[in-house]
Design brief:
By secondary structure, the protein is mainly alpha-helical. The chain is built from seven helices and two strands, in the order ββααααααα.
Length: 137
């Protein structure tokens, strides 16, 4: 179902047409948000964007999010860190050690290679076969 009214990109709400001034329609800023100081508007827009980020982020969105983690505004910085850690949880040392041990187990051969007479160790690559057949006789 289609939303009625217009979207305010500062407060993130859909509001009736009457809540927007003539210039507010094009700028997507309602009258109540237009009366806020520009710094507060910018902060509200950034917080709104952080709250509406998709789960899977593009490279540009990841870069933008990392920059917001260094923002001078405390609320923006805290929310950006929270959003980043939800999507990219920090690895704990125990997890890293467990991953390393699992990789070592998987990379170790589970049984020795057996070569029998006439068998090719490299599959059907016949150009290797002559050297192995000479050694196996």
């Amino acid at each position: 179902m289609k939303k009625h009214g217009h979207y305010c990109k500062v407060c993130g709400e859909y509001k009736a047409n009457e809540k927007f001034s003539g210039k507010g329609h094009a700028a997507h800023v309602c009258k109540s948000c237009a009366s806020l100081p520009p710094e507060k508007q910018a902060e509200q827009m950034t917080i709104n964007r952080l709250l509406n980020l998709p789960w899977r982020l593009s490279k540009e969105q990841i870069s933008w999010l990392k920059n917001r983690m260094k923002d001078k505004r405390r609320e923006v910085r805290a929310l950006a860190k929270e959003q980043y850690e939800m999507r990219f949880p920090p690895k704990r040392l125990e997890d890293i050690e467990d991953d390393f041990i699992e990789k070592q187990k998987r990379s170790a051969p589970c049984r020795p290679f057996l070569f029998w007479k006439g068998g090719l160790p490299y599959g059907n690559h016949t150009h290797h076969a002559a050297a192995y057949r000479q050694g196996s006789d």
